[in-house]
Amino acid sequence: MKLVIVGGVAGGASAAARARRLSEDAEIVVIERGPDVSFANCGLPYHVGNVIPDREKLLVTTPGRLRERFGLDVRTMSEVEAIDRQRKVVRVRDIATGRVYDEGYDKLILAPGAAPVRPPIPGIDLPNVFTLRTLTDADRIKAAVDAGVREAVIVGAGFIGLEVAENLVHRGVATTVVQLDRQIRTPFDAEMTTPLAACLRENGVRLVFRDTAEGIRATPGGMEVQLRSGAVLPAQLVVVGVGVRPENRLAVEAGLETGRAAGCGWTTGCGLLTPTSSRSATRSRRRTP
Ligand SMILES: Cc1cc2nc3c(=O)[nH]c(=O)nc-3n(C[C@H](O)[C@H](O)[C@H](O)COP(=O)(O)OP(=O)(O)OC[C@H]3O[C@@H](n4cnc5c(N)ncnc54)[C@H](O)[C@@H]3O)c2cc1C
Q1: Which of 45, 185, 244, 278 could form a disulfide with 163 if both were Cys (CB 3.0 to 4.6 A apart)?
Q2: φ, ψ dihedrals at 84, nearest 5°
Q3: Per-residue pLDDT tens for 245-273?
């Protein structure tokens, strides 16, 4: 049995470890696009905030340890570009060398996760505008804060946006969270989010509701975030946390059945894109101000 797993973080690494427990003889190959496997995404905002100062603590395990302990063939910086289901091979690109090769499989597990939505607004590609998914993202945000950011704007009051806000104020950065909805954490009832919003304010986070970022401009002092309302917020750091989109291109192109979220622009509910489901529309109507 040869098992190939695409993605080496929570889903991929635990599938690989479980597969090894089920079979000592199987050949198990884990292919991961990034430099890290099995890291603690949940700790990333707290590393930015110096609450978890030691970066090593975010590494649940390393490719080396997975090789030694579980006998896994872990290939980081390697991207699966396509699946050929007839031939049972994946096409892999070694990102460092550019070499492209086919890897055969008996069984294939896709664990490619979800990518942060980067809304197509002007200025989204400016150097100090970030999303947060990987250790590398956290390194970059932390480096910006270490370099002396005074003001930050977070777009989206979902879990990631709020955790980043918590950690930026912890670092002494004046932080404004801009949220399209009239409350933080859109899926929650207002009875729960109102005290949470009060707590954020008490701790120095500025909350701007029913507004969104329409563009970001570079200025001599850093950046300006232009809001739909006409307000302009100065910032040296912008973090966009407006939801995620499944990385399901491989699955779709291979003809696998995918769920409703596939490529439809759905977000986890906090930011710039409007959720399209009738369930969320019902929820919005029920919500008290
Ligand atoms: C900042 C942050 C904080 C979070 N906090 C919490 C929390 O407190 N509690 C909680 O429950 N969850 C939290 N989460 C969510 C949790 O981290 C995710 O649910 C979990 O990481 C999903 O694991 P996954 O393996 O499915 O996907 P991912 O972690 O996204 O991993 C998928 C991997 O697949 C790789 N990949 C994708 N396509 C390819 C390809 N074609 N070839 C090779 N590799 C590929 C990607 O590079 C990626 O590393 C947080 C997430 C973030 C970003």
Answers
A1: 45
A2: -110, 100
A3: 999 999 999 999 998 765 434 344 333 33
